[in-house]
Amino acid sequence: MTKETFSKLVLESEQTLYRISMSMLKNEADCEDAVQTAILTAYEKLSSLKKEEYFRTWLVRILINVCNKQLGRRGKIINLDDNEYTAEPSVPSHDKNVELKIALENLPQKFRQVIVLFYIEGFSVTNIKNILGIPEGTVKSRLSKGRSLLKSSLEA
User: Fold this and answer.
1) Where in the chain do CATH 1.10.1740.10 domains reside?
2) How far apart are CA 10 and CA 152, in angstroms?
3) 73 Cβ contact list (under 8 Å, min separation 6)
């Protein structure tokens, strides 16, 4: 893969990387650091990518590993009530998108992660299985449980 192709693919994936890292880290500065680290790591390990068509999945897997390391260094579980990734105060609370965003943020990470990858980023169940390194059945069950939790939260 050429440097130009790498740059093009990274630019195409930029928003996806940002949304995924923000869903995990809940802090803009940490999110930016994670994305930059993931891109640098991908560039350094580009020779390990076997097929160019899997670049996006491979890059997201690197990003998730970087985010997990950052979370581990924090030495604590994120308190979702104190995160910085909440709706702007000027946005009306009755807005359905804001309600959905808040409900999504309040999901446990393992459910939020598969929901974001599947519904927001458009990855298939098979791709999510490969990205997260979990069985396909686990991806499906987490999607189902995540949808159920979101529905309960939105109906409350």
Assistant:
1) 1-78
2) 37
3) none
Question: Region 91-111: what's the mean pLDDT?
Answer: 73
Q: What global pTM score does this model have?
A: 0.66
CA dihedral 115, 69, 130, 86 (to 10 degrees): 10
Q: Is 140 helix (H, G, I), strand (E, B) or coil?
A: helix
Domain boundaries for CATH 1.10.10.10 within the chain: 93-156
How sure is the predictor about 96, in pLDDT bands with cuts at 50, 70 and 90? low
Q: Which of 144, 78, 66 is nearest to 106 (CA)?
A: 78
Can you state the percent helix, strand and coil of the chain, rounding each to 5? 75, 0, 25
- Fold designation for 1-78: Rna Polymerase Sigma Factor; Chain: A (1.10.1740)
Q: What pLDDT is stored for residue 88 in this prediction?
A: 37
Provide the residue count of the chain: 156
Please give the Cα distance from 71 to 74 (Å, whole number).
Answer: 5
Mean pLDDT of 55-69: 90
Quickly name the fold that domain 93-156 has: Arc Repressor Mutant, subunit A (1.10.10)
